[in-house]
Amino acid sequence: MLLPHEYPDISQMVLEDDTPLDSFFNEKQQRLLTTVFYSGADTGITVPFLAAANVGLFPHVRHAGIAPDVFLSLNITAGEDWWQRGVRSYLFWEFGKPPEVVIEIVSPTPGNELGSKLTDYANLHIEYYVVYDPLGKLGQTPLRVFELQGGTYVPKTDPWFPKVGLGLTLWEGEFEEVTGIWLRWCYGNGTVIPTGDELAAKNQVQLSQAEAQLSQTEARLAEEMLRRKQTLLQGIELGLRLKFGNDGVAMLAEMVGISDVNLLEEIFSALATVNSLDELRLKLHRDAGS
Fold first, then answer.
1. What is the torsional sign of CA 46, 50, 60, 57?
2. Using CA atoms, how far apart are residues 184 and 9, in angstroms rounded to an integer?
């Protein structure tokens, strides 16, 4: 790794061009593989990282550069001023290392993904090279993964990257209103890392479920309070009838409108000790006022 004062002069290097993307599908697929890292999902990555699409990789100043469809680089050391020319492309001496993973998405016109690019990425010392062939242009295998061993790539039997702590999987579903089979990052158990929209939808479902549960709880409590009030009023009515006769029953009308169940419990308990309706009425008004 070079020190800043040792960086080469890049003023004459062509770091960016206007080459367009070749299809809407590729553009969406690239975005799905990059933005998921910035969606707020827990990826398990705890170090500085960079996930990008169609950004040139330059190992040294005399290299013409190569732009994979997607790459992921961990433990990078670049600054945050992305307007500086030195970090608008991935210059190895600026970022301190090559990316861990590069992904090529085969378009209707293949671009030597299983030919010269195998050699190119191996020469850049990139640990894992992935070729996703959604249209079957290179054969019957839609997903091929290679691992660098001894300076060359060898086929990997599974799309799991131990040094990254993540894997890739083919997932059938809808992304940005397009249904199809998509290449997605996943956890060790195969579960895909959710996008921002998926996280928002999940949170909305959880919120709706919580609100529904709260409403059910409130309804249940209200029903229980109503039954409790009715039971207390029945007990109070019986107590008034037994202790004060019809005059006592007439007083029940004053208590039916009381919503405070605790106050009704106090009245019910007071029936055992009061000696007159006036005494009970005084207690009723005093407790209701407090």
1. positive
2. 38
How many residues are listed for the chain in this entry?
290
Inter-CA distances, 136 with 73, 105, 142, Å:
28, 11, 6
- Please give the full DSSP string across 68-130, using - where no structure is assigned: -SEEEEES----S-TTSHHHHSEEHHHHSS--SEEEEE--SS--STTTHHHHHHHHTT-SEEE
Render each residue's pLDDT in the chain as its tens digit; 290 residues: 555 544 544 444 444 444 544 678 899 999 999 999 999 899 999 999 999 999 999 988 777 789 999 999 999 876 566 555 445 789 998 888 999 999 999 988 878 899 999 999 999 999 999 999 999 999 999 999 999 999 999 999 999 999 999 999 999 999 998 999 999 999 999 999 999 889 888 777 777 787 778 888 888 888 888 889 889 889 988 988 888 888 888 888 878 888 888 888 888 888 888 888 888 888 777 776 65
Determine the Cα angle at 144 with ends 15 and 19, to 5°. Answer: 25
- The token pair at 131 is 């070729």
Q: Which two tokens stand for residue 180?
A: 């199809």
Closest CA to 128 of 96, 95, 93, 155: 155
Query: If you write DSSP's letter for every residue of 155-210 in order, what string do you get?
Result: E-SSSEETTTTEEEEEEEEEETTEEEEEEEEE-TTSPBPPPHHHHHHHHHHHHHHH
Q: How many angstroms separate the CA atoms of 129 and 72, rounded?
A: 11
> DSSP label at 40?
S
Are the C-beta atoms of 158 and 146 separated by less than 8 Å? no
Give the span between the Cα atoms of 283 and 262, in whole angstroms: 14
Cβ count within 10 A of residue 223: 10
Check if the beta carbon of residue 73 is closer than 8 Å to that of residue 3. no
